[in-house]
Each structure stands twice: as structure tokens, then as C-alpha cells.
Amino acid sequence: MIARLALLSSIKxxxxxxxxxxxxxxxxxxxxxxxxxxxxxxxxxxxxVIPNSGHVRIDDARAATALNPFDPALLLPxxxxxxxRIKALRDRRIVDVxxxxxxxxxxxxxxxxIDPRNLAMRAMGVVPETRFADNARYTIKEGAFLPGGxxxxxxxxxxxxxxxxxxxxxxxxxxxxxxxxxxxxxxxxGLFESESATFDETTFFxxxxxxxxxLDAEGMxxxxxxxxxxxxxxxxxxxxxxxxxxxSRGADGSALRVESWQTINVSISSxxxxxxxxxGIIMGLFAIVAGTIIANTSLMSVMERxxxxxTMRAIxxxxxxxxxxxxxxxxxxxxxxxxxxxxxxxxLLWLLMRxxxxxxxxxxxLGLSRRNRPRPDLLWFLFCAAAGLLVSALATARAxxxxxxxxxxxxLATAS
Amino acid sequence: MSDNAKSPILEARGVTxxxxxxxxxxxxxxxxxxxxxxxDFISIVGPSGCGKTTLLNIVGCIDKPTSGTVAIDGIxxxxxxxxxxxxxxxxxxxxxxxxxxLVGVLDVRENIEFPLILAKVPQAERARRIxxxxxxxxxxxxxxHRPDELSGGQRQRVAIARALVNRPSLVIAxxxxxNLDSETANTVMEAxxxxxxxxGVTFIFSTHNALIERYAKRVIGIKDGLITxxxxxxxxxxxxxxxxxxxxxxxxxxx
Lengths: 416, 255
Hints:
- The complex is a heterodimer of chains A (416) and B (255).
- In chain A, 54% of the residues lie in helices and 19% in strands.
- By secondary structure, chain A is α+β, with helices and mostly antiparallel strands.
- In chain A, the strands form two sheets. Chain A has a six-stranded mixed β-barrel.
- The two termini of chain A are 23 Å apart.
- In chain B, strand 4 (67-72) and strand 5 (75-76) form a beta hairpin.
- The longest helix of chain B is centred in the C-terminal third of the chain and has 18 residues, at 182-199.
- A six-stranded mixed beta sheet of chain B has the order 6-7-8-3-9-10. Chain B has a four-stranded antiparallel beta sheet with strand order 2-1-4-5, with helices on one face.
- Chain B is of the alpha/beta class and 255 residues long.
């Protein structure tokens, strides 16, 4: 009867009910959308940036302070041996170990011209079957990613700037480990298109076995990347790998540095934390605003019915039961609002996911995708619905307590 | 007859009620003694603001007296907490209000059923009591109607059925006919009178309509928070109104 009475009252006072329902729905939908955005940013970080850079990275400790990131002195001469030692650990947590040879190169248009077009780029020498470089491997639009270890993979954007297309030859000009200039003509075998214009204009891929002879750096690597089954194990694995390798400093000051993704991306993690806090505050404010609206609407609504409640009390309804009745009404409206909010939130997310949101170059500078695509999360949906319901229940509680604590005679004497 | 026939259903002694409005104290009741016996049909009469509603609220456990005692069925209610007051109202007292005060979203049957549900009466018994009462007040064909689909007289008859459904010792009606035309008012009073005569239900009602007070067995006058006297209702006897509170007190000391 109490639930039915609450439901019927909600329907009868539909205008006020609609305000409460709308406030809960808006708060729920907003929380879902903001949470989805946040999930998109952090998900992009975990799924793109970390696998691109590896869960654990091994390089020369001097790279941290080197003015030239492509200084040949930073190459790891015993990369092969280090990889063999890591593999010998037979650690099931380590899914993959790969060498990477990055270097600076000039891509030059291959034609007899006094002024051919060229682009200064960062070459990434990787094994063709690499499990990193997702933003190029999974965004190949034409050709393939280093098929048979042949040619180079460049972005469509870079190809357009160089006047090249799939199958075109480009001159790859570089300075080898000994400081000698070198160039080779390589075919464009794959065109990719990542979501980052900066990445597209500055990076191309070449097979490691092809790049090493050009640099006169066979068996060497700029860094070694480890892919782990569980990213949360990175700190532990990094320590264990460091212990297995000789990380002592050599005469030339070189030393192996083993870092987890948390250490590598400490600044991004801090910024992500800041974004999380900021969005958390926004969500909290939404909840407060919705709660205030619901509290005031509930109070107005129950005050309009004060004589009805007074009558019920006079008939024998206990104060606690009256409070329960009003709270039930709040819960019914909260549940309905949360359901509507779920629908609205899902629709909003779907619209945002369709094209993504351009968050600008700042995100690219952080190594994150410029275009953020919110990611729905069922648990988050349920949390938002529960939060909407809770906000409604808490906001109604004040009105319920106010009315329940009122004297019966006072309620009956109130004009309605 | 049971012991109830010998002991009063309601016994109010020395009831006062003060209201504080800022620094001003309003003495709404100044020491009322009122006794109601089983089968009584008492009319409280007096001008507006004399304290009729305050008195009915106090004897109905809706409000607390500033001083004095109120006993229902011999149980002193002045020390009751809020829940015990609610339980007393539910089980021992029925209320009829001037503005009917039905729950707008419930139909006739549900309005009558509401106190039964609060009293946790089993469903079969609820149905039996409701069916009997709707027939008794002549609303058999309106059980599915909402209050806004009924006339004033019909609404008040629903209120009467609701007041009686938990078989209270006492029914308190605060100006039950004030919002009704004279013909409907008489119909409602006839219904109350019939319940009093046939079912032995005890009624205390307030009115300032002389035509209505004639239904009463006892008419008690109030003025400025004091009982001014008591006389039998016009239909029962033609005795003068007691001239003083002392005479009124003597009058309430029956049977």
C-alpha cells in the first residue's frame, strides 16, 4: 500500500515528479558521459601509449640527460645478450621482449630535382612482427606494415608532404654510428594514418634488420621493450630484470636503465590524476546541484500535501512510516530518473563515440591521442545509476524528516 | 453489558492548552473536564475560536494538553510518546474532518482500507469490514471511485466509513457538516446517528449549526476555553443549558 501510495502520489503530482526525475536523469547522464570521457583518456593511455612504449623499457641511463636523443653513443651494444638473458628468465609475466632502433633520418623525395621535398623524421627500427607501435600497425590504410621486412611504413600525411604514394621510392638519408653519411632508396610499402598529426608527420617505420646495417649497428638497439601480461606487475618485473642484467656503470659512463611504465610516464600519470580529480569535482558538483534541486522540489511537494500527511498521521500512521512513505516516493522517482539517465547517458556516449572529441594538440604533446573516444563501462553505468538513486534518496530524506517531525495538529491545520 | 458500559470511554480532567505566539501566551483551553460514555452522541458547540477544535485534537490524541489528563478507555494518554499516540488513534479513535481529508490518489475502497492496513488486519477480514461499511453508509456502487468523483456528502460518508473501520471506541468529528449543504448535512448526520443508535458507536462532534446539534444526545457549550454548560439534545429532552462550569462538571459526572 505504501509503495502504491507513493507511486500514485508521484503520478498525481507529475510536474514536480518530472523535475526530480529530470534532475536525477541529468546528473546520471552527465556522470556517465564524463566517466566515459575519462575512461577514454585513461584507456587511451593504457591501451595506446603504454603498449607503444612498453611496460618495461631498458635503455642507456645517459639518455635521460642527453641533448641529442639519437646520439649513437646511447645505443646498447649488447642488446642481443641482454634480450637473451631476459628470455632465459622464462618469466610468464613477460609476454614479449623486443629491441628497438630509433634514429634521426631525412626522408627525401626521389626525383631529379634541384630542390626535392624532404622531411626530417624519427625512424623506428622494429621487428616487422612487432607487438608495439599499435598506432601505425593497426591504422594501415594502404599496403601492409613492413611486409617481409621490406620497405618503410610512413603516414599518409607524410607521404602527401613528400609527394609519395604506396610503391614510391624515397631516399632515407642518415648519419651512421661512426658519423658517416649514408642513404638508401626504399619503397613505401605501407601507409598508415594514426589519430595524431604530430606522430604522422614525425615518425616512420623500418625493419630492424634493414636499419641496423645502415647505421652500422648490427646487434645493437636504442632500447629494449618488454610487454607484460599484467601492466600492474611492471614495477616488480622491472626490478627483477634490472637484477638479472648488469646495470653497473661502464668507463664511458654508460649503464643500463630499467624503468617501468609508471616511471617513464610519471608526468602523464600526474596529469591524468589531475584530470580525474577535476572531472571528479565536476561530477560532485553535478550531484550537489541535482541533490539541491531534488531536495527543494521534494520539500515543496510534501509541503503542498502537508494536510494529507496530517490526515494519515491522525488516522494512525506513525511518523517513521510517514517518513518511509516520502522516502519511497523519492526512491521511485530516483529509480525512474536513474533509468532515464542510463538511457540518456548511453545515447550521449554513443554520439560522442561516433566521432570522438578533439582535445587539441596538448593531448598529443602528452603522447595521448588528440581525438578522445569515450569508452562505456558497464560497472560505471551501474555506479552512476546507483549514485543517482542515492542522491535522490538523500535529498528526499530532508523533506521526509521535516514532515514526519511536524505535529499532527499542525499538519491538519495547514491549508492545502 | 460489559464493564465498558460502566466506565467512561473518554475522561478528560483539568485540560488546559496554551499557545505561545512570541511573547504572547494564548490560553485556548482553561481547564476542561469532559467525560464520554459508551453510546454517547455529544455535540460540542460554541463560537469560532472558542477552543472546540483544540479540545477535540487533545481528546483525540492529535495534540497534547499543557496540563491535565486525558484517558481513553481508562488509559491515561498524556504520557504517551508519538508512536503510542499514533497506535491509540489507529485502534481506539476514528476521525471525521470538516474537509473530508480523504487521500486523493486512493479510491473509496482504498481510503477505507488504509487504517486496516496500518492495523495489519488480514486481507479477508479487511474485505469483509469494508463491504459491510460501504453498504452501511450507502456507497456500495462507488467503491472504485476516487474522491474527486464524489459529491461532498458522499466524501463525508467515505470519511465516516474510514473512521469506523477499525471499530474505534470513540469517533471524533470536527465540524463534519460545515462544508455541506443542509440537505446533505442532514443525510450525513442521519448516517452518524444511525451508527450511534444501531451500532452503539460513540461520537463527539463539534458544530455551530443549531440544526445539527439537535441530533446530539448531549450538547456541551464552550466559550473562551471553558465549558459553559451542558444540556440534552433537542430531540432527547428540553432542559436548560447548565449555567456554570460547576453545573457543567456536575452534568458530566453521570451516568
